[in-house]
Amino acid sequence: MGHLDDMALFVEVVKTKSFRGAAEALNMPNSTVSRRISVLEKALGLRLLHRTTRRIELTEAGQLYFERSKRIVEEARLAHVELGDMLAQPTGLLRASLPVDFAVTYLAPLVAEFARLHPGITFDIDLTPRRIDLVSEPCDVAIRMGEPEDSHLIARPLALLQPQLYAAPGYLSERGEPQTPEDLAQHDCMGMIKAGTWTLLSGDQTHLVRVGGRFQLNNVGMIKRLSTLGMGVILVPEEIVADEKASGQLRRILPEWQGKPMPVYALTETRLLPAKTQRFIDFMRDKLASRR
Predict the structure, then answer these.
(1) CA-to-CA dists, residue 209 to 198, 200, 206, 272, angstroms
(2) Which residues of 106-128 are buried (b: 16+ CB within 10 A; e: fewer)?
(3) Identical fold at 2-88 and 163-260?
C-alpha cells in the first residue's frame, strides 16, 4: 500500500509539474513530498525527476514510470469509487437463505416489497432450515429462527416471535379442548421432537408441561399440516400459521398462555456489508418490529 501511495504522489507531482503544486493538492508539507519522492527513487534504484530551481523534468525512466503509474493509480481510484457506490447504492445479486415455512407464510410479502423498493437488486433465495456455511457457500445473509448457535458468524437480532397453542376444530371436537396447561399431557402434541417439555408463560407465571405425541418430525410445515388434519396440538408463532388461522383450519387454544419468545436473527459472515445486504437486514428488522 505504501508503494501505491508513493506512486500516486509521484503522478500528482508530474501532473502539477512541481512539488509545491502536489503538496497543495494533497494538503501536505512540501518537504514531505520531496522526501517521499526521494525514497521512491532509492527504492526503484533510478532517478525519476530532474530537479531545477524553476521546474522539474522527467527522466527517461521517469517517463516510463509515469505512463505505467498513472494507469494503475486511475484503476485504483475507480475501484474505490465503485466500491463506494456499492456501499451507498443497493445493487447486484443478493443471495439469501430463509427458513421455508416462515418465508412462504410471512416473509414473501416483505421480500416483494423490498424488491419493489430496490429495482437494482436481483435475488437468489434458498429456502432451507439447515445450518449453512456462509464462508464456503455462496450466501450473503441467512435468516434463522430460534437461539443462534455459537459460531464465528455475526448474528443480528431482527424480532422476537411469540409461540402460541393451536389445534384443528375437528381435533378439539373429538378430544376436547384443553382448559389448563396440565390438560396438554392428555393430548397429542407435535413438535420437533417426539416428547419433551413445553415452557408456557402467562404474565409472571411459568408452567412446564411434559408433552408427547405419535409423530416425530423435523419439518415445521409438516407439523402444521398434520395439525390442520386433526393430528394434534402445536406450539408455533402465529406468523407460521397465519393463513390457517384466518381460514379457520386452526384455532388458538389456551389464549392466556404462550411459549417462550423465539428470536429471529440475520446471520452474516462479516460486519462489513455491501449496501444490498445491509439494506435487506435493516428492512426486515423494521418490518418485523412494526408488525408486533
Answers:
(1) 5, 8, 10, 43
(2) bbeebbeebeeebeebeeeebee
(3) no
Other beta carbons within 10 Å of 35: 12
**Domain locations in the chain as residue ranges:** 2-88, 92-154+269-290, 163-260
Packing angle of the helix pair 19-26, 2-16 (nearest 10 deg): 120
The full length of the chain comes to 292
Per-residue pLDDT of 66-78, as tens digits, reads: 888 888 887 877 6
**Distance between CA atoms of residues 98 and 40, nearest Å:** 52
The whole-angstrom separation of Cα 188 and Cα 207 is 18
Strand partners, 228: none
**CATH fold group of domain 163-260:** D-Maltodextrin-Binding Protein; domain 2 (3.40.190)
The domain defined by 2-88 folds into Arc Repressor Mutant, subunit A (1.10.10)
Residues 167/249, Cβ–Cβ less than 8 Å = no
Is the model's pTM score more than 0.85? no
What class, spelled out in words, does domain 92-154+269-290 have in CATH? alpha beta
H-helix or E-strand spanning residue 252? strand 251-253
- The tens digit of pLDDT for each residue in 6-35 reads 888 888 888 888 888 888 888 888 888 888
